[in-house]
User: What shape does this take?
Amino acid sequence: MKKLEFILLSFILVLALGLRLYKINRPIADWHSWRQADTAAVARNFIKEGFSPFIPKFEDMSTQANGLDNPNRYRFVEFPIYNTAIAAVWTRTGVNTLYARLMTVFITLGSTIVLYFLVRTFSGPKIAALSTFFFATIPYNVFYSSTILPGPLMVFGILALYFSFANWLKSEKWPWLISSAFFANLAILTWPIALFFLLPLAYLAINKFGLKAFRRLDLWFFSVLSFLPFALWRIWMMRFPEGIPNYLFLLNEGNIRFKGAFFRWIIAERLGKLILTVTGFFIFALGLIKKPEKAENWFYYSWLASCIFYVVVFASGNVRHDYYQVPLIPTLCVFMAIGVNFLFNLPNQIFNKAIGPAIAITSIILMFAFGYYEVRGYYWINKPKIIEAGQAADRLLPKDATVIAPYNGDAAFLYATNRNGYPIVDRPLTKFVENGTKYFVSVDPNDQGIQNLTKNCKVIKKTADYVILELSTQCLTK
Assistant: This one.
């Protein structure tokens, strides 16, 4: 690595870190707080109740995940590698949202480094630098790489897998193959949608060995080593059906796949407005139509095919949740880098060469401006009183109490109380009391139903923003 490359990569890393420190200390009440709260809760329970990675738990005891009661608070989705890492940090720092977000930031810095060396392997330092610059600065990616979500760790695993596997193909040395299997497991167990992003490995293997790749024992060994832990985890999960959220709606809810609304949401709303914006999408499109200079660069198209396959299969998931597009970012950045490089090197015979760099720079500046405009609201705490009410409940209620903290099913309010319980009223209040849940925390004190409860039940604390009640069978039957 040349000195200039080192300086440039260092600058990009410092820039990436600086951008991600924006509002880094915000509580878990920002955009997609429900998913962040669920993730953080598993880590916090590793601290409170003991480390149990094979039986992860969060605070939610309700039926909203799949219609089944979940009194044991099981949370079986991805294997809790990311949650374990947060818990490991919290054992030193105490449970603090700041350090969980910082851990995601440093994971993303690691991804930035790996992306540079991966792209450098296939396309040289110029495209590598541009790719990592976009990865470091796209506002959408800046926000999501400071959230408490497993996506950024999965991205790191996928990038490290590609880099390790490419190096194994060059050297055919076992340490690279073992590290490839390690990163495959990291990615797949962290977020199983990583399975969709294994297609580039098949392309690289066939590009190197041809059809003989299917007869190589080392590749079969790698495949088994990569898939077996995930298969065992899925088998183990089936023992805890109440802790497995319903996921079928993420596939094709409302038969949205390939409908006009699907293309509008993915292309116009997500890529053309939120992530790349209209000017970034233009640069991406240029990179897409630029013919690869080397045969190996078709690797990028196999990577893009993985992205498309994933979005199509999880059609409603990608329409419903914008954080589902986090795994697409490295691929988009690579093609944007190719597009910018094309604009800076337009052939004189056809184009006005001076106009290309001006278009590229203007497009990039507008992409940042439009992107920040779209993402800035993601940092906002739209209902800070859930944090205030949660902290009050944590001070005033018994440590072993279970609470009802309704917030449209969003567990962020329940997480703020630091108590187990229910983020939704999914049964009559008398049933809660019969089962031992007698504390009710609400941030809607002016609601007519809440006012009736306030008149009849014991008020532990009431302010203009929230009320904490102790329920009883007697007060509920008045």
About this structure: The first strand starts at residue 402 and ends at 404.
